[in-house]
Amino acid sequence: MAKKVYPANHAHPRYWGAWLGIALMRLGALLPWRAKLALGRTIGLLSWKLAKRRRHITDTNLALCFPELDDRQRAALVKKTFVANGIGILETATGWCRDPEHLRHRVAFRGTEHMDRAMAQGKGALIIGIHFSTLDLGGALHSLFFPADVVYRPHDNPVFEDFMTRARRGIFGAAIDRHDLRGVVRRIKSGHAVWYSPDQDFGREASVFAPFFGVPAASIKLTAKIAKMTGAPVMPLMFHRNPDNRTYTLEYLPPLENFPSGDEVADAAQVNAFIEQAIRRHPEQYLWLHRRFKTRPPGESSFY
After folding, report:
1. Terminus-to-terminus CA distance in the chain, angstroms?
2. Looking at the chain, which terminus has fewer C-beta neighbours within 10 angstroms, N or C?
3. What is the dihedral of CA 176, 263, 233, 65, to 10 degrees?
4. Which of 7, 14, 15 is nearest to 159 (CA)?
5. For the whole model, what pTM was predicted?
């Protein structure tokens, strides 16, 4: 597929949709809390009704990961997932466009002693984040307690990429392209903590197959590689919206033990086990809308 070519002039009509989206995000970030929740639920429900392809992907993922659910229970969880991710759009807007200090009263942070001990070693840290609907707001809330850099995927649209990168640099110390391994290693070796999310399918070449909810999943090898190159502790971080829909909890667990072990599959399985543990707390808040099991072992057909 040919790569899209974007005009150099950011005022070009091709970018008007992006500018409108940015304006709406800025406005959404300023809404009162109840209005944000109501708008987010509406967006989620509309997406649930209209986005049949994404609904199918979500249902397939949940059927694979939660086989104990019957059809009715799984359908309810699919709907809750769309609602949570609809609210997540407003949470992302808030994380990118507002000073996180105004949300300090809404967040509880547990396990900070684990991060304090890790950083005291002077080797930096690799933080395992997860693609929850609260991802970007979680990063903003994290910045109230610990500084960190972030690894991210650049957006194809240069207008939105500029907006997104500026927003993340306002939250994190540095925003590092996910392809810039040297940049990640350099920042960690300089004593920085780097937030990194290894829970998506990056294809066969970058991955090994390790169990995720009992299903072989293409699991990125880079987590163990970075840990080996830097000697930094790998810190599991959980974050979610609480059931009251008004407050948030972030929690550090102790660093992964015997990591990296030298066994790529075992290392990927250990990371996946933590991610699964975090998802089970609030499964509806995970980004089930993406094709987590897109890459299959040789000879297996697509689930989707």
Report:
1. 21
2. N
3. 70
4. 15
5. 0.93
